[in-house]
Fold this protein.
Amino acid sequence: MRIYLILFFSVLQFCLFAQLPSMDHYRPAQSSGYLPKDLLISTTQRYEDASQQIDKGQDQQLQKAEEEFYMQTAYSIDQIRFSGSILVNDSMGLYVNRVADSLLAHDPVLRSQLHIYVLRSPVVNAFATDQGAIFVTVGLLTRLRNEAELAYVLAHEIIHYKRRHVLSGYIEGVKLKEGIGQYEAMTFENRFLKKHRYARNQETQADEEGFELLVRSNYDPRAAITAFDILAAADLPFSDTLFKKSFFERDYLFFPSKFYADTVKPYKIDDSERENDFATHPSTTKRKKGMIKRFGKLSDTTGSYFLVSREFFLRVKMMARFEECFLHTNEGNYRTAIYMNYTMQQLYPNNFFLQKEMVRAMYAMALQKNKKYSYEDLSALFESLMSGMYDLDDTKPTGELGRMKFYINKVGSKGWTVMTLKYSWMVHRKYPEDKDIEIWTNSLFKELTEKNELRESDFEKNDSVFVLLGKRAAADTTIARKMKGSTPGLQFQAAIDFLERDSLEGYEYWQFGLINEFADSLFVSKFRQAVHIADSIDFQDSLYWELSRKERDALRAEKENAISGPQDIHKVVAVNPIYIAYDYRNEQSEIDVRASVRGKKMLMSELVSSGKMLGVDVTLLDPGTMDSTSVDRFNDLMTINDWFDHRTEVKGKSVLPYSPTATDALVSKYGTNYFMWTAVFSYKQKREGKVMRILGLSVVPLAPFGLYKLFTPREDVYVVAIVYDMKTGQAVYASRAQMDKQRANKERVRLHIYDLMNQLSKPKKK
Amino acid sequence: MKRFITTVLFLATTCIAIAQGGYLGKRVIVGAQAAYAPRPVGLVEFLTQYDASGGARLGFIVGRYSQLDLLFNYSNFGGNHHFSDYAVKQDRITSMQFGAAWKQFVSKKGGLAPIGRFWEIQMNYGTYTYKVDGSNPNLLSSDINVLGSIPGNATALVGSIGYGVQNVIKDRFVWNVGVRCGGPLYYSTEGNHASFYGSRILYREMINVFGGFGILL
């Protein structure tokens, strides 16, 4: 497998260097044109349309299951629609659709039933729904080597749709659970095995018929074999470019050699993919072998790797890779984002988008490194450790991505902040007109002076000490031999290697890192400005600690009350209100789709009507309120969702690693700084302690309560609202009502929404 | 009565003036309430005997989490029995109570006036009239004589704390249920039978289950 991977990456690099499309003006992908009808129809409509197909002659239990399936599918599609992850009429989507056109040129009816979209996700995946929507992720597009591979992936998904695999898989699950049909006389274990075999057979059928479709369309059938390499390497980065630390360590900034792992383990394919009785998919190796066999049986193996356009393909692939850098930062995978960006900068060394994204990812990483974990954050820290955010394998990382992660982990918070400021200052000086870079750079000064408490005197302003240390190292015969040049940088690096300590005779590595920058008067003035602010904050902090404990508690309580009290806000944008009704009594699905859909409709109408009653102008930003011409609002929703993800990821920071100019544009477009997220969650479950309740009926006064509880499920409700000032990035209002053992009736929700609007509209307390 | 009506009107207008929030802007509740008080003198009595009272209430939502109720209660108590009133019905106390209740909705449990769980403090001033049930054929004349010596009238200030839940249905109708505990804080009567009145009122107030309904205006 290793040889395949080496081949994979080599061919990939060759292809890339051979023809690189220009990406000078790349901007993050957005939707354009008209929104298609299938994205605009409501869950209920989607469900009603789909349930027309139900065969009324079949078993009633199966009919009910099919109905439930359509409801669940309609709801799932809605969730993707509301997430703002779908791209409509973007370049990548247009290309994927053109490939589908050429794949199904012989079957226009089938083609007309399909709606193919690109999903903004770095995960390598493609999937089809029973209603003809096929989603291809950005992550998949980054790994393709030719158009025919994409065609094969689409062909595979088209077969899933054509053969209605999603529906039949669901029905099979119901049959298994209820012991209907062939499962009637089987033990539970056998039923389970049979069900998984059924799922694997579906995959094999999609492989086989997808291959036939590919062959028929004149794409090169070899692509069906190589497409499995993409699947096998799905968890690996799209490139394994050698990480050179010289990318970060330049001028006078150096870190010890031990920060850079000399050797790395090669990538290996995850063995958990291997087929077993409980797997839903056959193993990738087995599928590939099956495909090679099918290929061997072909009489005519000719075909083209590109039917639409080779140039278009390369461009789309590069776009996807640029996009993936962006998406990794959005998703909080900062180390991966930095590495992906690094690999792309090897191909596009002076690309504005990449340099800006690198500043963003490094800045995000700096914020994370500078975060001081409080007691409350310990669980979050533990969670991030468990999630693999931190590579605990310190001795030998895996692959070049692992090497970079190892390096980033080793560099301390001060070092990283200096390194990031150095990089962002360079980019800022190159593109002084870009406001985002300027804001992030300014914020980095703040990180350096406030969080890391560094002052001008902490830095070396000239290279005299630097040269001295280097010369001293050079005087040592052992180290002198190691030196490969005579520049101060190399001498210093040699000195670091020689000393192999964390401090260099009282100096820290980062202290030399800004020698060149301190020669720039603008840099110095910005640094001094940040120091001035940091000093005043220190002063305020010291005043705070002079207060008595009681006074401090009162101050904290006042702050907490202020955020849930009157705000004097009269215009607000309600972003994608959420209503999810969970019903844990239902074993098929935990979400009661009907109640969720009804609830959401009610929630949206309550927001508007309560707002109207109390003088708050509420603009709903939700796909449910959009029409075909609302593409701008569809994009706005995407931007706001991204911003919100950052806000929740990076708490307590005023400047987020997200484009401030993009959010400023939203503020001026909607005429308000205030964007609101509201959610209602209700949970139904069986009550416990039935016996005690029956016994309790004998106590006459309590009998009516007992009877009520005996025949009704337990219900809990949560109503959550948070309003952000997008200008400052701070939450101005937050409320969370947790109502255990209370029904999620319309009146209860209505009251809370009314109260929300009342608090927003009322004048602030002085 | 004039003084009472004037006081109620004064309180009502003050409450409306300071009232905030409410259910979709509605802040006044007009309704009725009833209470069921089992007799806490023994297990059998607790399960079989009870006092009952009922009355009207005028509620005002006066804050985000608060509601003020003005109450009028009438009760006729004296040993009602679930299974047969024949056994114990020997005397009867009728009362008229006027008072106020402060309901504080529990914000930690998501309460907002007028919906949710609430704590309640109630104060009632009542006049009580005692009457022997001479129509009870099982009552011995000697008992009638003893009971007959109990003075006819008493007044008491009764306080209680309660916990309950209130809800709204169809945007207009309010209902609540809960449990209340309390007792007489002060009472006055004539003669040597003060403790008799005290304990009878205490039985009634010590624990009761209440329920009510109303209309939001």
Observations:
- The mean pLDDT of chain B is 81.
